[in-house]
Every structure is written in structure tokens, then in C-alpha cells.
Amino acid sequence: MMQALPGPYLLFLGDISEPSYAKTAFGLRDWAPERCVGELRCDGAGVTTGLAPMAPADAYAAGARSLVIGVANAGGHIPVSWMPSLLQAMEAGLDIVSGMHTRLADVAPLRDAAQRLGRRLIDVRQPPSGIPVGSGRRRSGKRLLTVGTDCALGKKYTALALARAFAARGIDADFRATGQTGILIAGGGVPMDAVVSDFAAGAAEMLSPDAAAGHWDVIEGQGSLFHPAYAGVSLALLHGSQPDVVVVCHQPGRERVLGHPDFALPTIEDTIALALQLGRRTNPAIRCGGVSLNTSHLDPTAALRLLDDERERLGCAVADPMRGGAAFERLVEDCLA
């Protein structure tokens, strides 16, 4: 489940205008900045990572060895409008790394150019072979899973921050990636949404195997149990992970499901209740360690006020892991309790 990727990276943002679809680029910028030399955007792009804009040739001269498609759009497809930029990158000497559902080698212009130029086309959204059917067997060690009220609101960031905080306290902990961005950050994992559904729970078991009693696997959540399209991935991950602790992730102010505006977001309380109800199927001792709020759209004063208010309202630890502070320390302590 581990693979070496050619770096450093030039992050490609295509022509997207919805920031939530750029979570791969943002994740690499925030959690692997030493591997990112700049960004490349198509005309009309409305999203930026804030990294230096670079043409592929300039990025190669600056040390980049691959262009990473930093987009996770609905359906994971590669638009025709991206072809000139991707071909230019290969001409400049860069391999292409993608976490899209569309396989790079299935796109004829990319496949032909790679063969002609001797470039690599690397798909990280490729499940490992030999995934078993889920067994439901209890495993040794401890597990934490982040679950969400929706997609793209902080499950990966929360898992990364908690794994780092556990390690800082001297606790043996591993971040377990379940999506393309996490895999690019961690260097390995299982892309859960690319696993055949019958084997998805088994893939989660494979990702977090038996471990020492004091070891924690901090597992990146996917989708939402309430999502009209992706709930199946979330449920398989919940059953297969058998988490001892769940942390519910939410973005205050988001009222409709991303990409599905006809559906209202569930409440935090309903998300906690459903995660615990369904999670008890494979771990009767499952509990909620607290709530993670993505307050990136709020100023510091408003964010801290909201965290305090929600802690009082919900009666549990509530924090924004990216802001840290006492609230996050309490969340860490309650997860480990």
C-alpha cells in the first residue's frame, strides 16, 4: 500500500472555480509543503493555493519532477480542457500523478505522449490486490475514525492533526489514508472509493490490521453516512475500521450537501447518533471523542466564540484542529481517555 512518488510536485488546479474541489492541492500545500514548488492553472481558474505560479519548464528547473493533479472533482474525470497543460508538463520533463477515477493511461493523448517521451503516468487511486471480504473480526490495538456531516470539510485534516498530536505525546500512532490526497501526503493507503463495494469493509480491515495494545491507527474518513451518493463508502469504512473512537467533523454555515443542493446537511447530533448506532455492529464499545469544526471562514474571535458555544451546547470537546489551543488539547485528551 506504499509507493514512492517522483517529487517535488507542481500542483495542477485545472480550471476549477469551487475551492472544495481543490482539496488535493490544498492538502499537499498544508501537509507536505516541502514537496510543492508551485502551481499551474488553466485560463479561467478561480482557485489558487497561493503558491508561486509556474510554467512546467520553470517548475522542472526549480526541481519539480512531477505534476500532481490537485483536483478532486465530482466523478473524478479529466476534462479535455486540461490536455494542453498536461501535455506541456510531460514535454517539460514531468511525470503525471493523478488521484482521479479516470486512469491516466486510458486517455489516449496522455498515453501516447508518455510512451513517446518516456514519462510515467501514476494513478494513486488504485486499490491494492488481494483485498478480502470484511470479516467483522475484532482486532488488537486502538482505532480512531473521523466521520463527517458532508464531504470536503475537514476529516483528513482532523485525522492528520490528531495523529500528529498523539505522536507528540509519545503515543505510537499512524495516520491511515483512505483517499487520494491522504495517500499523496502519507505515501500509501487505500483509496476506499475505488474499491469494489463487496470488498470495501475488508479494505478498511486491511488498512488497520492487528497492532500492539497501545498503538493507535488514526483513520481518515470519507463522505458522510447521510450522503445521497457516498454513504456506502462511509458505512463500509465505519464497519471495517471498527473504531473505538469517532470524531465528527463539520463546517459551520454549510447547510446543503456539497454538489447536491436538494439535500440538507444532517445535524452534528444526528451524525453522532447514527455513527454510534451503525458502528456498534462491529465495535459495541464505540464512543464519540468530540467534534471538529472547520472555522477557516471565520475570524479568530468569532471562531473561538463558536467553539465555546458548541462545547456548551453539545456537552463534549469541540475544537478546530488547525487553530490548536486549549480546545484542541481537550479534544486530544478526550479521544485518548
TrEMBL record:
<feature type="domain" description="D-glutamate N-acetyltransferase-like C-terminal">
    <location>
        <begin position="133"/>
        <end position="327"/>
    </location>
</feature>
<dbReference type="InterPro" id="IPR035402">
    <property type="entry name" value="DgcN-like_N"/>
</dbReference>
<dbReference type="InterPro" id="IPR035086">
    <property type="entry name" value="DgcN-like_C"/>
</dbReference>
<protein>
    <submittedName>
        <fullName>DUF1611 domain-containing protein</fullName>
    </submittedName>
</protein>
<dbReference type="InterPro" id="IPR011669">
    <property type="entry name" value="DgcN-like"/>
</dbReference>
<dbReference type="Pfam" id="PF17396">
    <property type="entry name" value="DUF1611_N"/>
</dbReference>
<dbReference type="InterPro" id="IPR027417">
    <property type="entry name" value="P-loop_NTPase"/>
</dbReference>
<feature type="domain" description="D-glutamate N-acetyltransferase-like N-terminal">
    <location>
        <begin position="56"/>
        <end position="127"/>
    </location>
</feature>
<dbReference type="Pfam" id="PF07755">
    <property type="entry name" value="DUF1611"/>
</dbReference>
